[in-house]
Amino acid sequence: MAKLEPYAPTPAARAGRIAKTVTPFVIGIVCVLLSFVPFGRIVGSPLAPAFPLMAIYYWAIVRPEMFPPLAVFAVGVLFDLLSGGEIGLWAFVYVVTYSIVITQRLMLVNVPFSAFWAGFAFTAAFAGALAWVVVSVIHGMLVPPGPVFWHMAVTVAVFPLFAMVFGRFETRVLLGG
Amino acid sequence: MEPNRTALPFREFSHRISLIFMLTLAAALLLLGRAETYVFDRARQVVTDLAAPLLEIASRPVAAARRVIERTDEYAYVFDENERLRAENARLLEWKEEALRLQAKLARYEALLNVQVDQSIEYVSGRVVSDSGGPFIDTVLVNVGSEKGVRSGLAVIDSDGLIGRVVATGPKASRVLLLTDLNSRVPVVVEPSQYKAILAGDNTSWPKLEYLPVQSAVSVGDRVVTSGDGGLIPAGLPVGLVIQTSSGELRVQTFSDRGRLDFVRVLQYEFPSEVKLQDPPSMLRDDAAPAGAGASDAAASGGQRAGVE
């Protein structure tokens, strides 16, 4: 019986594997930075979509093992540090949302895109409502819900575009090569 | 494959444990963050300073795209714009006459009162490089920091009027709290009634006027300017106009457009809280000198008067 050599990956293969493992997380970080680029200024509106939420939802459904809770937490904390608001607000909202999305994962994986998108609409509504409740409790008053509503509406509207981009990354970087 | 399959329940379990751990950590952070400890402020400054150059690069194409859109808009409306400008020019000429007349009058009054005009306030110019990035916060990052003399509390204006004040600075970037933010409170005066109020942001596009002594004395279209109370923001900076919302509430439409912030100026205003002690005029000093004991008294009272003025 032939004895198999123990598997020893070359450094390049190892680097490639590390790159694959961190790609979803790096995309998450890029999404955080994207939220601070003043795109709204092009058309003269302060509305900006919640880019990190799209990344979190997408990877939680498609590749949860590559986007662990720690990554979600890190993305949320980075967002909080950059935004200058309550620290922990979006970390909390994103981790809670992630844990709920994970429980519904089997319902949303490998479904037509419209169902995937509808799932995201529910997720965004939940995240927006939770954030609104937390901020209202912190400030001890009912914060006007208009801004967060439009924020999430814009997010749901641009989701297909980003899902397409994430999908490209998944097929090219994670599955290919 | 074999070792993976046996490890699967364990991995799922560890995934769940880490999820619970992160949930607890996030909740704890949310509570701890309320204490506003030094660590969080420090971390925030470091992250902001690191991200500012990246965001500045990213905001360049945004500014370029906006210019292209504005340019095309301008071409489309060039005739209307011309017509409008002609009308405005005629109106402004009338105003110029009025201004000249008032200037002459003011010069006479100033000569009469011997008022010293404030020396102009120095400023630092910068660009807005980031958006607020969240629906509950209205702050922007500006690409000038403590290296250029920006400090917390300084007023920030753009070409239209006050936009907010600096709340945090790093070496290369500062955070500006806009007038519409939930935490923004700015002392203002409503002209022409001269009633003072606090302009309070509440996360909508139009900040409220709080602590107005007489609600009825303010009407739609009144100008709102900074009052200078508190000594943080110079008096007389244009803020906005009083408007009425559909619910009948009086609010303020700011002159600066929240969606189009680009170049801004940080005013390095220093409230003249300490007035230099002035020596009494030589004439008085000569009078006081022979009296001997009275000299120090005279100097003290002279100093006090200078302080009061």
Any overview of this molecule?
Chain A has eight helices and no strands. Chain A has helices spanning 11-34, 40-43, 51-62, 69-83, 89-103, 105-108, 113-139, 146-175. In chain A, helix 1 (11-34) crosses helix 4, helix 3 packs across helix 8 and helix 4 packs antiparallel against helix 5. Chain B is an alpha+beta fold and 309 residues long. Among the domains of chain B are: 77-113; 185-256, Rod shape-determining protein MreC, domain 2 (Thrombin, subunit H), CATH 2.40.10; 274-309. Chain B has helices at 2-33, 38-76, 78-113, 282-291, 294-308; strands at residues 123-127, 139-142, 155-157, 162-169, 174-178, 185-191, 195-200, 208-210, 223-226, 238-244, 250-254, 263-267. In chain B, strand 3 (155-157) and strand 4 form a beta hairpin. In chain B, helix 4 (282-291) packs antiparallel against helix 5 (294-308). Residues 1-6 and 291-309 of chain B have low confidence and may be disordered. At the A-B interface, helix 2, helix 4, helix 5, helix 7 and helix 8 of A face helix 1, helix 2 and strand 2 of B.
